[in-house]
Amino acid sequence: MTYHFETYGCQMNSAESAALALVCKERGWEEIHEGEMEASGGADLVLLNTCSVRLTAEKRALGRIAHYAGLKKKHKRNFTLVVAGCMAQRLGDKLIEKYPQVDYVMGTRQRSLFPLILEACEKGIKALLDINEEPEFSFSKSHLEEGQFRSFIPIMHGCNNFCSYCVVPYVRGREVSRDPENIIQEIRLVGERGVREITLLGQNVNSYRKESVDFSALLKLAAQEAQKNGIGRIRFLSANPGNFSSRTIEVMAENKIFCRHIHLPVQHGCDNVLKAMNRNYTRKRFLELVSEIRSAMPQVSLSTDILVGFPGETENDFDETLSLMEEVKFLYSYMYHFNPREGTKAFDLPDRIEDEVKKERLYRVINLQKKHTTELLKARIGSTEIVLVEGISRKNADELITRTEKDEMVAVPGNKSMIGSFGSLTLSSLKGNTFRSNEISLNNV
Fold it and tell me: Of 129, 148, 398, 424, which has fewest CB within 10 angstroms of its CB?
């Protein structure tokens, strides 16, 4: 039996696809990659793990569903088509109504039903599943992709914040924190399998709390276990500024295993807009948090999310976002303009901003961020860094692509035997947003 997965959206979706792939492999199934689909005649099961955060992500997934539905309908291909993830949770049986060729819709809270789907495929029958059978989210034991030296480790799921523009709480549900013992067991497991870097995941990762263990306490436990099992780096995504505690900063500053990079989504620079977005902090609080982080870890780099064109946003409101960017100077940003998502509070807000205005404001944000990124990167030329070798460059087979703890990319001569190793190098020049180095010396970090 063979399977083919396509994953869209966030790192959590990638982790969950890896967990589902592990279930397949434990049953003896084999993976068919994209480039092998035609030559092999296709897979027995095709699963699309979808995203709902952006309308463009849903449109892309719908296009792929239509593609595979067409293969089943027009070319009489006999395979099982599964739509999973956030869009599956949001639309449910509406997807089957539109595409009858879809065999199963598996939302974010029905993943424990996946083995039943595989069993039905193996027997050549259709499983009768109750999509309401699993009302609460359950975590998988492992999310490690076979042969990888980096691994995502989900620690919590869902979100209680209900930002007015965001669909996540509706498709992921309320916050559920994973048992800390299970998290530590997974860290131990991936360390034993050669993983060198882990990323702790959650839609609102720093709101983690399980009984007496909060996020800062979990970080301390994770660092201890990682160091015992050969893991050299820990990252986490994605942190809400309103939940970022001083104790978390202290734990990070005390232990070098935590990468000196934090993704801290600000979304906007104006208090009026932040309030309308239902973000649980002010501009002043965000800037105080940035100052506290940089005081404790002077070498830290920061990235962010920025949303422009929110309903009612004035030109003065927008200017406050630009001024916040100037004050903080993020290494990079994920920048986008407001698109209404049905079901969210912002969907019905008045004073919508015209598309041309949204696009013009986004253009200005992008240009300012490019300026800051270039300035920050150029200032780093000549520094010596420890990097993790991630792979071979797509542009040059004789070059490696590596990453610093500050989340910067560095190209350096080398061969594939170095992949997954830590090494030291000097940032000698900059091409675009990628550093170049003349040589790398491997070490035992």
Answer: 398
